Amino acid sequence: MGALGRFFKDINKNKAMLIMVLPATLWFIFFSYLPMAGMVIAFKEYRYSRDGFLASIIQSKWVGLQNFKFLFSTNDAYIITRNTVLYNIFFIVLGLVIAVAMAIMLAEITNKKLAKVYQTGMFLPYFLSWVIVGYFAFSFLSLDKGVVNHMFSWFGIDPVNWYSDPTYWPIIIVVVFLWKSVGYNSVIYLAAIMGIDKSLYEAAMIDGANKWQQIRNITIPMLTPLITILTLLAIGKIFYADFGLFYQVPRDSGTLYSVTNVIDTYVYRGLKSTGEIGMSTAAGLYQSIIGFVLVITSNGIVRKFNKDNALF
Amino acid sequence: MIRKKRKFMPALTLMLVMSIVLSACGGGKNEGEGTAEKPVELIWYTIGTPQKDVDKVMKEVSKYTAEKIGVTIKMNMIDWGDYSQKLQVMTASGEAVDIMFTSSWAFDYVQSARKGAFMQIDDLLKEHGQGIIDTLDPAFLEGSKVDGHNYGIPANKELPAQEVWRFNKQYVDKYKLDISKATTLESLEPMLKLIKENEPGVYPFAVDKNQMPNVPYDYIIEKLPMAVSLDTKDYKIVNVLDTPEMKQALNTMHKYYKAGYIPTEAATMDSMTDVQTTGKWFSDRATTQPFADNLWSASYGYPVVSTPASDALIYNWSVMGSMQAISANSKYPEKAMEFLNLLNTDPVLRNMIDSGIEGVHYKKTSDNVMENLPEAKNYDMPTFSLGNVMLTYLNSTDPANKWEEFKKFNDAGKEAPLLGFNFDPTKVTTEIAAVQNVKEEFWAPLMTGTVDPEVYLKRANDKLKAAGLDKIMAEAQRQLDEWRAANK
Amino acid sequence: MSVENVGKAKSRDFHKLTPIWNIGFHSVAGIFALLCVFPFLFVTIISFTDESTLAKNGYSLFPEKWSLEAYSYLFKAGDQLLRSYGVTIAVTVIGTVIGVVFTALFAYAISRRSFKYRGFFAFFAFFTMLFNGGLVPTYIVVTQLLGLKDSIWALILPLAVNAFYIMILRTFFSTMVPDAIIESGKIDGAGEFGIFFKLVLPLSLPGLATIALFSTLGYWNDWFNALLYINTPNLVPLQSMLMRIENSMQFIMQNSQNASLSMGVLQSMPQDTSRMAMVVLATGPIVFAYPFFQRYFIQGLTVGAVKE
User: Do B450 and A164 touch (CB under 8 A)?
Assistant: First the structure.
């Protein structure tokens, strides 16, 4: 009874905290953990039963790891994995540096009204759907009507057939991604900077620290926990790719697949004609597991250095 | 319907019971339901932009159907782009639906039938759907069988698919061209050349990424390079990309591309709507139906003429262009079939569903001709998706012999070799996923002539082979041989 | 407002940049902002361009001919558009409030070192970021277990909590709220909830404003839940209505080879300009709401300044 008694004592001691986590915990149970049971579909050849969903699951045939095979079976498997991971690494690193830099600049700019205007402006791309972004990219990159080729012609440079030449796309993809996401991400950092205790800066001023030293010795260290957490979370998503960015923006051009085909577009194209839920669930599970392993590993490393910065 | 033998552990049975409770499927049938006094409600999902007056019209429809067959109708419209996804989720989760639209191009009929979304209606059709059997061209029901059974009622409309060369009449007249000379892809060349030289800014041959040269083959799966020749005797499945016809067509396309007849960015263009709006095109290819020229001209706002580019052939996909199926978990399958029977045979019901309430949404100007009233904008339905189109009233602009011409067109259609055969991809889904990706990589650039087939055909074929095309073809061949043996 | 001004004036005293840096920062941030705003301006111009001019000349900053056609197409829906705005606003406001409360409570609890199960609950939340059961199981829980089909709650609840926000907010709480404050609250005899509401929340305004902003944007931009759960036209939110049109246009264009389809419906479809008009209508209000959130960042600064 000792263990149980201690347990109840703990519960009682943490009563207030447990009440606080209760609403969201219930939400997670309903909207995340209950549906997770559906992951079993990844190992099934899912067929419908007229008696409802659970009956469908039970009656569907087990197929083991068959549903996962399409992710590994071809030469493309290497390309899509490489593309997904490499792009994400660039997104994480560049996104972080630029968003933090932008946030610091916005926080330092003395004219707060203008800073507000800039921040609002940077936010706008977040609202445009990838379809629309795709149109814009096209209005720049179109072979005969595009702005870029137009400008090239002024300088006597030969027009480039952008949508059939893979050379430039890694850069285009990264630029478009950053353009769309930096404004959004810098909000988080900006808020964190705003929350830093001003007395720290005052103390630094008194010590004669210049702006750059203040940023390096106060702002950045204060942002480190946030940067760590966001990076850890991003690592968990390293096997996921934004479908619209890799599908709509390159206009699904076949000649560009060597640099634009990622796991998500591969799954989409591959399952278009057969529509197997089992296989799409399998793809999702594969992405989740890899992400999970990576986060657990990197979280462990972070914990070694600083326990407070770790996720859990 | 796919039903597995039930053999599960008690714990699973408990879950099953729970699921039945959850999905509220437990309601038993009461005696005396489905009469004019106590009608049953049928839930019907169909495709199209949701219309404001659907509920209003369905109220009238329900009055009529309650009287006739003891059902009321609840229609839910799902917009074009959302339909497939929504219906897939709904059927996979076992939601209560009675009737749903399905087709070869939205909410895939064969696939969903195989997964168990629809009720098998062989017997129901005989018992409660005699009217349908009498009205429909037999090729419709025959061609829409999946593994030997019917799972849906095709709409009576144009049955075969015929390709035509379309021309912008403005330029045909200006240069006094004889379009009857256009037969093959190659025969277009002199005209394209003339336009290219004399009309800068006009696309001589408007091709987008969805287009592909018309070769005399019947595809196993749409746009996957496996097919049998149209005049096949031995039903041998070949790789279309290896055939002399395709090679020739691709060479021609590439020649046209290099000559500037084809838009430079054809391989990434989703559609030609912009060009069609401005009329800056000379020719293209399209699928036709009787009086299509009138419709095209009306919708573009300038005259369009066409001339046949292929025979009228009945394909699986042309038969399955628009169907209504009964859900596997429908509580009232007989009633649903009675309703579908009425929908396909009763002009009053069919026109009410199509055009709304007489005197509100439309008025009749003669026995079978109607005119839209202003209110029609609140009830503008896609006619072809809602059953037998040949029962619908004509518009004042339609020729009086419209439906006779449709019948003639249907009668003239020849059956494609694979009509009625549906490939079951279950055993090769892995390979199909890989082959699809390779296909998408090469298809549009090749088919639009953007790349040199001498180089890219080989590359594409090598990659297709590596992805497992041969295995799919072998499996398809096996199924096809079995099917032929069973259908001799 | 006056407090804000004091805070600003005060912060300016020690927060000054050298003019060169100031100009440098201004130009970098300004140019980037301009690059971001430009397409949006472009969208607005296109939405007022005449359709046939657009088809002829392509996108242009100075169209030959202007037109209100695109908007009249969208306003034809009339009361539907207004109702959709109403639904979106209601969903956004209610959802953001619920979301922020749930998120803040959970995040605060797991940010506290004294909470014995913080590790477990942090993991409990984090795990949901990576693993999910997919569309169909979620659909079943929402429609069959919770019975939310065709209800406004089906638009609110599925988006209410998000582990990502919890993780961000937890970090805010643990970096911005010094333990000393909580300890001082305890000494004053306040309960955990008292400390949370009276001491912690006021200090965490920038963090809360960020979460509220993200949550608002999430609700505002959501169209997928409506696609899944809503059939009644009266409950269709704005984005969903516009996305439906956009998706359907794409779908029909891609299936333009289909004779019956293209002949039946193509002509009634809106064109490019309407699509752009949709973006303008859907984005305009939320863009104007943005400065409102920003005020809280500034206020956060003020609180920080007053604190010492």
Answer: yes
